[in-house]
Amino acid sequence: MTDSAVPLERVLVIIPTYNEAENLRPITARIRAAVPTAHILVADDNSPDGTGAIADELAAADDHLHVLHRLGKEGLGAAYIAGFHWGLAEGYQVLVEHDADGSHQPEYLPAILERLRTADAVKGSRYVKGGSTKGWPLHRELLSRGGNLWTQLMLSLPVRDATGGLVAWRATTLQGMGLDGVEAAGYGFQVEMVRRAIRSGFTVAEVPIEFVERELGNSKMSGRIVVEAMLLTTRWGAQYRLGQLASLFGARRPAGGPS
Question: What is the CATH number of domain 11-250?
Fold first, then answer.
């Protein structure tokens, strides 16, 4: 479905933030250095540590940086959906998901954007050849790999790192797959978006990256977020398998037989 004739020059990097005051200046500077023509949208969930005020200060000094102030902490998925809607309304042709904490390294963005020329979406992947993680304890590594294995098993997605959060989307892909009705608020959002894209007939490519554990601030990962993602993936998987069974038995029904 990829249309190589569609222009991809206008790039918006969306950074959801909640209490990322220590990280916002360095990460936006690295993004601006890695892809100087790209714009940045900071989607701040009313951070009590002053992240929003820092974002306003940065935006006042840089016409490539914008701020979306949200009412409160509503989850990663909700922040990205709001950012997507903002970016699509402003006419950006590429919209990128990017963490604020430095775990996703902006220096990979040029390679990801180049790969987007021949795909409908591109994920920075820890689990394809050349990808890796750095600074994770063993239990975190096992949890991440187990989550991706469960996702592949339940949903049959041809993606090795469905839970990864560094993603570049063509605007036409987001418009074609639709953003209404996205359920996941936390990290299950990444799986849901990949699932929606592939079920809509779009191609999702992967580029190897090294994921680095954050040095400053507190991780937003929690047991509740993990449980939400697992429950949603299990439900989507059950629906998918039931759909496969229904199609199989429908195909086996004799012509002219009872409907």
Answer: 3.90.550.10
